[in-house]
Amino acid sequence: MKSNFSEIIKDDKAVLVDFHADWCGPCKTLAPILKDVKAELGDSVKIVKIDVDKNQELAGKYQVRGVPTMILFKNGQQLWRQSGVLQKAEIIEVINSKS
After folding, report:
1. Which of 71, 73, 79, 94 could disulfide-link to 9, CB 3.0 to 4.6 Å?
2. Residue 99 gets which letter from DSSP?
3. What pLDDT, in 10s, does the model give residues 62-87?
4. Looking at the annotation, which residues are catalytic?
């Protein structure tokens, strides 16, 4: 994944990266919320899920200390980050205001 991660976040569309883990309860809560966000925003956002256990180097690079952590990128720039679960409306508001 990390080989093309830098390409993915260079997109001129908003790219929301969800750093998560299989063992993480809040991550399981966030997953359907992100599906709803994607359904509402469609092609205006790309949502990428990164398993921190399988991508420790990438998680380390972005200093992900807790999961879930969401980071919003556009054109390779980090625009926003937040740890924990947010509601759909909050996530959509962040994406719309930043991108």
Report:
1. 73
2. -
3. 999 999 999 999 999 999 999 999 99
4. 24, 27
